[in-house]
Each structure stands twice: as structure tokens, then as C-alpha cells.
Amino acid sequence: MRLPANSMSGKQKRNKLPDTETGAVRKQWNDHIRIALVYPNTYKVGMSNLGFQTVYDILNGFDNILCERAFLPDDIISRILSIESSRSLLDFDIIAFSVSFESDFGNIISILKKAGLPVSASERGTPYPLVIAGGVACFINPEPVFEFIDCFVIGEAEAVLPNFLDHYKSGAEKKDNLLEIVKQVSGVYVPAFYETSYNKDGTLRSFYPIADVPEKIKYVYLKDISSVSTCSKIVSQNTTFDRSFLIEVSRGCPHGCRFCSAGFVYRPPRFRTLSSLEKTLDKGVAIADRIGFIGAAISDLPEIIALCSMAQIKGAQISFSSLRADALTGELAAALKKSGIKTATIAPDGGSQRIRNVINKGITEDQILSATEIIVDAGIPNIKLYFMIGLPTETMEDVEEIVILCKKIKKRFLDSSRKKQRIGHITISINPFIPKPFTPFQWAGMDDIASLKKKILHIKNGLKKEANVRIDFASPKKSYLQALISRGDRKMAGFLSLVESNSGNWLKTLKSSTINTDFYVYRKKSFDELLPWDFIDHGINKSYLEKEYQKALLFQTSAPCPMNSCKKCGVCIG
Ligand code: SF4
Asked: For the chain, which ranges sit under pLDDT 50?
């Protein structure tokens, strides 16, 4: 069944949510293990997340498991009840949070509270549901929410969940069951089995087990992603990708941009085979007109053109989550145009070649300008450009280079647009750099808010006379908060509780908190420091990340991951 166009009001949506979706699973409540899968944000955000949908599909694929969804209340959903049967979260055996962004960590506390559960794991005894959490935000750094979660899944859901559920015993004493699970299942982290101590200067001194459990948690991943199809389970009108069927094409990225956590924690990069993608495509075109290809390195798929043609022959319109400027060809742009795409995105990330070398972006100005031309020549009228400010070693000259590059892009854009007799818009998105865990920049400090504001003003002034150019800025203050949470240790749990007590008012909490938040955000860490996330073993050697950071400071680049089990970063050895 194909879904009709979305034309309902907010109130109608609330009452008729089940009618606006196709693919939801409703099982009878009998002897199943009952799992509430919770996305700690609104329905619209959660249902746009392919990882969340994948876990829903995996869990409902087991005969003995019943999985229903729940979200943060909004104008569509007024209470925290499961979507499928309107049950309270307290009626489930397991509450499983799927967390992609650390900015949603605070919502976990608020959901637990609203659902009637004690927020602290230590106060939730055996009769309460087991609260677990997984998703990329958890396997990058779960420590800021250690206090609220009984156990974390450190790895890809397909690789950990089946084994986890084999050892889960409904109704058993929680602590005993968790101890057994940890001993039998790789990729499970129970915070209550570990303690930490701190140095006088506030840095982490030690992280150690207090039970018979491993010292480090080994991240577990799926070696052959073609063995499973990762795609939308439910197609809904109320998502960012309205009525699109999403298909994961690849996982991880070979390019090694030094600011990107996903590029390191999802190593080795993996691509699906064309034949496995075709099977998933057939499922998609049966229920949706539009197919969204998802992945950090879609344009690196060797058969990308064949995949696009295949989708279009089957009558689908297509879109991509990202495309690299150096991989954009006329054929790819034409395929996008054919699907009705009106805006194509390029991410130069840095304005100067020097900064692009620092971040190991691996694209040149010529490639960026040529991608602009290819997009407009294909008939796609609008372009969106992503840049970062506040990158390590950045000077005001580098910021000025963003202005200069945008003007060059604009000129190339106009030259090509005139030939087409249609002039579209350029949107420039400027985002403060956040030094993330498990990247070569994990030791760097974030640029301060005053400096970021100065850089934003410089770009605004530099481009204010440019017609058809719109500039969007991510707020430096919000980026500060994001850095605080993503780089936090266990002390951050108290801060998040305070945010919840202050009804989500982060700025009030920043003023009233006794925590020195600048310590987490601005401080450059020393290479021999124990980092809050060091207990997670992603297989990447810390010495490799350090070497990459040192190369960045010398403006040196590194070759992409060769994807052939070399020994460079350590992932393919372990
Ligand atoms: S060890 Fe080599 S092939 Fe494997 S992920 Fe690292 S860089 Fe890539």
C-alpha cells in the first residue's frame, strides 16, 4: 500500500497516527518478553532515524519478543505510552533507549521520570523494567548518563542484541542476570560494576571493575553488512523524510576526516553488495515512491550509478544522505535531478586548503568548484554548503578564506545558472567545531564562544552584499553544551539531573551548577591522560589517533583507509 500525501492538521495526526504509518507490528500480549523501544526525542525525529527503525525490526523478528515504540511527548503524542498498544512503560520487561545524539541524553531522564520510574538505576530494583541504552551516542561516550541506565549495548545492534536476549531472563534478579549477561555477551557495559576516581585537578585517575567483569568493553560490529538488510520498517508521513523508504547502503567511511567520530568508531568501512541492495529496493518500491539512500560514504559505493539506475527503472525517486564533492559526477547529478531534487549539498568544511589538510578532508578547491558546476549543469537549482569554524590551528585568515571560497562558488554557480536561464539560491551553513571522543581531535579544546561569534560576524559581513546567498549559523552556546555533554565524565550525570530539575533550562543550569563546565569544553587534554571513554575498546590504537593529531598540527594529510585489512589504525588486527 502506498501512502497518500501528508495533508493532516496536528490534531488529526494525534488521533490518527496509526493510519499515517505503514509497517508497524502489533503482537498479542501473551508470553512474550515485552520491550519498549524508546527514542529520546519526538516521534518525527525518532521515526526519521534508521538505526531506531532497525532495532524495532530486529526485536520484532524474534517470535518470543514483542517490541513497541515510545517517544518524547509533542503535539502528536501527549503522553509517554507505547504507540502500538498505548501501554505505560512500566508494563514492559525492558525499556530500551536508542540514542544517536548526546544532545538527547537529558531527555532520557525526563522520559524515565514522566513514565513513573526512579531515574537512578540504583533505585530501580528487580520489579522495575530493565533499562538499557544503545546507539552511536552510547558507544562513543555513555558516561554522562551512567547513573540512569542499567546496562549499555556497546556495539551494532545486529551483532549484540540476539546474544543479549538469549541470556536475558525475564523476572530474574536484575543484578545476577546482568552479571551473567556481561560474562557471556561481548559489548555489554553495566556501569554499576565499575567505579572511577579522580585526580586533584579534576582529571580521571582510574576506571576499574568492582565485580568479576572485563576491564574494558569490546565494541562489537557486524563484519558482513550484506547479510542483513537495514531499511525502514515503518514508512510514516510524519518524518523528516516524508514517505521515504530509507536504505542503508554503507556503514563507516574510509576518508578519515579528523573531526568525525563516525569515521573512526564505525571502522572498518563496509559496503553492501548490489544484489543485496536490489532485494531491499524491491521491498521499498512496493510501499513508497521515494527511496532515501543512507550512509556516510554513499558515493564510494563502486556500483552507485548502477544502484541509482536500478531504483529509477523501478519507478522510485531517490535521494542521498550525503555526497562528496570529489565523487560527484554528471551521471550522479543527473540521477538526482531526475528524482526531483532541488538542492544538492557540498561539505567543503574548511575554507582554505591548509585547514582542509588539517582536518584531512581530502578535497581541493578545484573539486569543490567543479562539483558546483556539475550540480547546476544537471539542472539542480540550489546548493547548500557546510563549513566549520573554530577548527584546531584556525586563524582569521582561514575564516576569510571561507568568505573568498563562497564568492568563488557563487561566481561559478552564476556562470552555470545563466546558461540554464535559472538562478537558484546558495545556503551556507556555518557550524562550530566540537572536538569529539574517538577522533584525532579528542585532545583538542573547543574554540571559545567570543571567538566563534567574532568569526561568524566576519563571515556575515564578508557575504552580506552577495545576492541569492543565505547564511545559517549553529549557535555557539548550543555547540558549547553539545561539547560539554559529549566530552563529559560521570560527574556530568549530576549536571543533567539539574537540567531536568530546571525544566530543561540549560542556561539557568550553567549559571547555577558548581561544575566547572569550561574544564570539559575548552581544556586541551594531555596525551597521557585517562579519558572518560577509554574503557571502550573500538579496536583503534590510541597511538594512531595521536599520530593523526600530530600530523594535523603540521598540516599533513593521511591516505584514506584502504579497506583491505591493513595494520594502520588497529581495527582489522583485533
Ligand atoms: S586497519 Fe587499515 S583497513 Fe582496517 S580500518 Fe584501519 S585503516 Fe582501514
From this structure: 1-15
